[in-house]
């Protein structure tokens, strides 16, 4: 009698219908898609497997946050000067620099600012954790292994001349495997694209159609070049904005809630009075 307590693994089930072992990556991906069709794994598992395979081919330069979008703290600043910036950007770690982004002294953890709020002696230099420097060409699978081994979450990326070209976090790498990692600024996919909050502001997904946005907020935006709110905001910025940046368009202030180096995800929208008029003049 067969032991029913033993459940065949995915590989065991795959072996029951594979006639030969995959000879290359293309064969392997094709087999995984066949497994999906035969309900041996679900779409999420397939996506992650493809992500794992893709990470091995990607380099840090493909996912890093560019130098121009790095949020840094100058070591010469007093805590009361940079703490509002820490709150606005809402990162957990900040590179601390001395007279420019090419001179990174170390990493300040936002939680270490609790010492300052507790009234304890606080010196930024004393609070710094060592910064890890990596080349743009490092493979993401190697970097992920190093992140795990060293229990590190952030690395400074340098170019071939030793200048800082950006930074990369463990989240940037993991998102290549599991997709976007939601945070406190995300809202459920099943909800509307436009969600009002208690302060009279609106959380808006970048994919929201302009027609829907106009209907909800009484605006009249239109363009033949883009169809979404994200397209509207990107067009006015003229570049990919970073989290926390604001821009005013007509009588609306758009604050970026979530964005990466490639895509704008969501924004906080607030109506402001027009000069000499009310909100809707």
Helix content: 25-40%
Order of helices and strands: HHHEEHEEHHEHEEHEEHHEEE
What can be said about the biggest beta sheet? 5 strands, antiparallel
SS element count, helices: 10
What topology, given as strand order, has the largest sheet? 8-9-12-11-10
The tally of beta strands, per DSSP, is 12
In the predicted model, the low-confidence regions spanning at least 5 consecutive residues are: none
Helix/strand-derived category reads alpha+beta
**Percent range for β-strand residues:** 15-25%
Measured on Cα atoms, how large is the radius of gyration?
Answer: 24 Å
Provide the residue-averaged pLDDT: 81
Which term fits the overall shape?
globular
Distance between the termini: 81 Å
Question: What does this protein structure show overall?
Answer:
With 281 residues, this protein is of the alpha+beta class. The protein has ten helices and twelve strands. It has helices spanning 10-15, 25-37, 43-55, 79-89, 114-117, 124-127, 140-150, 170-178, 210-217, 229-237, and strands spanning 65-66, 73-74, 93-97, 104-109, 133-135, 154-158, 164-169, 194-196, 202-205, 246-249, 252-259, 264-271. A five-stranded antiparallel beta sheet has the order 8-9-12-11-10, covered by helices on one side. Strand 5, helix 7 (140-150) and strand 6 form a beta-alpha-beta unit. Helix 2 (25-37) runs antiparallel to helix 3 (43-55) and helix 3 packs across helix 8 (170-178). The longest helix has 13 residues, at 25-37. It is globular, with a radius of gyration of 24 Å. The termini are far apart. The relative contact order is 0.10.
């Amino acid at each position: 009698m067969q032991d029913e307590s033993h459940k065949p693994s995915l590989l065991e089930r795959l072996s029951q219908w594979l006639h030969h072992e995959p000879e290359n990556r293309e064969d392997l991906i094709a087999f995984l898609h066949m497994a999906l069709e035969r309900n041996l794994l679900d779409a999420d598992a397939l996506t992650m497997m493809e992500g794992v395979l893709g990470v091995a081919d990607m380099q840090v330069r493909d996912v890093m946050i560019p130098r121009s979008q790095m949020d840094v703290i100058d070591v010469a600043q007093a805590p009361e000067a940079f703490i509002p910036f820490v709150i606005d950007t809402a990162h957990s770690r900040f590179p601390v620099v001395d007279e420019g982004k090419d001179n990174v002294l170390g990493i300040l953890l936002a939680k270490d600012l609790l010492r300052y709020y507790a009234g304890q002696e606080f010196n930024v230099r004393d609070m710094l954790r060592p910064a890890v420097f990596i080349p743009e060409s490092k493979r993401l699978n190697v970097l992920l292994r190093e992140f795990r081994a060293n229990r590190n979450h952030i690395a400074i990326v340098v170019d071939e001349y030793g200048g800082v070209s950006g930074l990369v976090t463990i989240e940037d790498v993991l998102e290549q495997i599991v997709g976007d990692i939601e945070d406190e600024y995300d809202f459920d996919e099943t909800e509307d694209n436009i969600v009002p909050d208690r302060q009279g502001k609106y959380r808006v997904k970048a994919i929201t159609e302009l027609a829907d946005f106009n209907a909800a907020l009484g605006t009249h935006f239109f363009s033949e070049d883009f169809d979404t709110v994200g397209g509207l905001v990107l067009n006015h910025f003229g570049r990919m904005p970073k989290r926390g940046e604001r821009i005013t368009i007509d009588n609306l202030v758009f604050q970026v809630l979530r964005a990466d180096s490639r895509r704008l995800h969501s924004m906080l929208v607030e109506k402001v009075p027009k000069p000499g008029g009310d909100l809707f003049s």
